[in-house]
Amino acid sequence: MADAIPQCLRRTFDLVGAAPNRAADTVLVSVLPDLDEPLRALTLSKLFARNDAGALSLLVRGFKKYDRHLRSLVLGRVRDLFEATRLTINSESADARLGAIDFIETSRSCRMAYLLSAALNRRCPRTVEAASHALTTLTRMVRDRRASPQRTQERARLSGDMQQLGEALNHALDGWHGHHRNEILVAAMMMSDVTEPALFKKASQTRSHMARAIAGVLRAEPSPHTAGFALRALRHPDLRKAAADKINNTNNPEFVRCLLDEVWVTADPEAARACSAIRKSAWLDDSHKTFANFDYPRAAAAARLVSLSGLPQDQKMRLYARWISSPSAPLREAAAWQMASIQTPEATASLESLLTSNDETLSTIGCLELTRRDPARFPGPALQYRRKRVKFNRNESFLDQVETYWGGFDALPPAEQKQTGQRLRRRDSERFDRIIEGKLAKPDAVQRIQALRVIRATEAARAFGERLYPLSHDPDERVRSLVVSILSDVEGVTAVRILRRALYDPDPRVQANAIDVISEDDVDRWKRELESKLDGMHHRVRANAVRILLRKRQRAAAETLLHMLADASPEHRISALWVVRELGLTTLMPRVREMAQKDSDAGVRERAADLVAGDSLMATFADVPELDP
Question: What is the SS3 assignment for 601?
Answer without folding.
Answer: coil
